[in-house]
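Example record for the data management plan.
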Amino acid sequence: MARLAVNAKAWQPVTQFSGWRSIDQYARKEPSPPGGFSLSDFATEVRETVTVYDLPLSSHPSFRAETVDRLSGLVHDRLSATIVKIPKETPSIDARGNRLDLPSSILWSCSYGLPLRLKFPEGQHLRVQFQLRGLGTTRIGKEVIAVNKEQSCISSGEAEVDFGDDFAQIAWRIPLDALERKLAASTGHLVTRRLEFDPVLNLTTPQSRTVLQILQSILGVIDGGPATPAKLMQAELESALLVSLLCAARHNYRELLDRGCPAAAPWQVCQAESFIEANWDKPITIEDLVSASGAGARSVFRAFRQSRDYTPAQFKRHIRLQRAKRLLQDDNSTLSVTEIALTCGFPDVSRFSKDFSRAFGVPPSKLLQRKRSTTALNR
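Corresponding structural encoding:
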């Protein structure tokens, strides 16, 4: 596989995830691959505007250390890593790590406040590193890969990560079997060989920018809203993130994703729609649609486009908006607009209001006000 050249002199620090557009903007520019399969189909409910804090996932702290001895024990216990290089004189430090457990994978945000090198052992998972700020590199054997705003590093074997003075990163740890299941569902083919990735992920491509946008959305859901109601969106966004990584990265099964595929039969589309209607209040993943329809993911998405002129995600959003409308009109419901939005799988109330107004021609707050006025008059 081709390698992206690493130029240490060209490293540019970045203060935060910046310059990302909404996924819909990228989707409009990105041509659909053969078979009509589009990454945007998996994540149309992504937040348009998300605040990213200094160190994301601050609501999920895992460790904080002020001394090297304390840090050494924490990185071993929490990260299964070993400090192999650190400045001799470090009387005090400010090392922080936050951890979010998603349904199938783990997101870490880490900042150590001093230059150091951590050694990670080989495992049955994939590590994907995204720069937040500063300079960092990852050593895989004799290869040294920069982690910066233009590229990410993907590794599964033994690796050493060099943190610069102010380097901070998001590290996504994914069990390989979770990716293999997602790959099998997306392509309709059994994964019989170990999934192997090129260690460099070019972040300047439209497919990779989709990965960043979905990641940004997950961080926004976690840091910008209540944790419990966001569980539904966490699961669906993680599913979209896994698929977007498979489509953006170079790996030994990439050709399967680039092939064309036949469309599913109309009855299979109906099966998928029935499943969505029956499970609108639960996380709905690609594997769920594949199981419900009996067809491969790309075939299902292509059939939706051809026979319905919308995607499964758009149908799911429509069903959830209808449920929200019923709750807003229910005389026995005392829920607020925010509570209804969260109940129906919309963590961003502003986005929910826009979608609702577009679908029904009236803001949800107005509909709720009408119901309360009518209820008061009838008392």
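Summary line stored alongside the record: The radius of gyration is 22 Å.
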